[in-house]
Amino acid sequence: MSNTLFISLAVLGILGGVLAVVLYFVAQKFKVEENPLIDEAEACLPGANCGGCGFAGCRALAEACVKQAAEKGNIDGLACPGTDMGKVAAVLGLTAAAFEPKIAVVRCNGSCQNSPSKVHYEGADICAFANTLYAGEGGCSKGCLGLGDCVKKCNFDAIHIDKETGLPVVDPDKCVGCGVCAKNCPRGIIEVRPRGKKDRRVFVCCVNTDKGALVVKNCSVGCIGCQKCLKECPFEAIEMRGNLAYIDPAKCKACGKCVEVCPRGSIHAINFPPRKPKTEDPKVLQGAEPVVKPQPKPEPVEAKTEVKPENTVKA
User: Which of 128-132, 205-209, 279-283 has the lowest mean pLDDT?
Assistant: First the structure.
């Protein structure tokens, strides 16, 4: 019995050793050499693996940067939202192109006040699930459901649900514009837009493409497609998408004229100073009565005497 056990162990040991040698040579034959710059480039990235760069994770982006740097000599078009790509470029011995910072904006203003509840939802606190069941408590089939899928998916703690309005609020100091919240919103009310000069931006805070009558029925601030903003914009930055106005951030100059003419208050201007009343008289601004300018006195008109012809026949 002992001899049989000894022989079995010896055979297994020899077999294991032979297989280990074979596996070693196979691994050496087919091993893939990895550029050490990938690890250095990955160390410059946040490591959140949010997918905002368009790749599966930070390492995938680092690999793409190293590969493009070797092939094209630049990393143009590759960027991680909220990260200084200059550090990655420096590791690769390059200079990164300027990257326009972006931020997520919530394009829905159907709060509890603007779109009062008509029904009460009882079910799973998942927007994707509730979206398949009903239009929403306020009746708008395109409005925010307020169950917080965007909040759960954000890797930077940059978005929260306001308890008073029931709408998500983006923290501009934490948001990096990765777009994860936008991808996980089943109704597409979150859009990633450029932050704009001086952190100012103008956008239509509505995504409802229904006809005006239906929009008015369910929300007091929804876009009704009246096209007043379209006609007012001097830069052709506004287009109609069905019954919904949309502001192109690439063309918008943030003049604010569309905000003034919108009858529904659907267009929001962020980080703009308050507008002053349109008046030239400083006393009017202080609440004083306007000054009445004296009118010039009319010049006297000389009376003209009617001259009758000499040959007048009287009846």
Answer: 279-283
In three-state form (DSSP H/G/I as H, E/B as E, the rest C), the secondary structure along the chain is CHHHHHHHHHHHHHHHHHHHHHHHHHHHHHCCCCCCHHHHHHHCCCCCCCCCCCCCCHHHHHHHHHHHHHHHCCCCCCCCCCCCHHHHHHHCCCCCCCCCCEEEEECCCCCCCCCCCCCCCCCCCCHHHHCCCCCCCCCCCCCCCCCCHHHHHCCCCCEEECCCCCCEEECCCCCCCCCHHHHCCCCCCEEEEECCHHHCEEEECCCCCCCHHHHHHHCCCCCCCCCHHHHHCCCCCEEEECCEEEECCCCCCCCCHHHHHCCCCCEEEECCCCCCCCCCCHHHHCCCCCCCCCCCCCCCCCCCCCCCCCCCCCC
**Structural domains in the chain?**
37-91 (1.10.15.40), 102-270 (3.30.70.20)
Whether the pLDDT of residue 146 is over 90: the answer is: yes
pLDDT digits (tens, 9 = 90+) for 22-81: 998 888 877 777 788 888 888 988 888 877 787 888 989 999 999 988 898 888 878 888
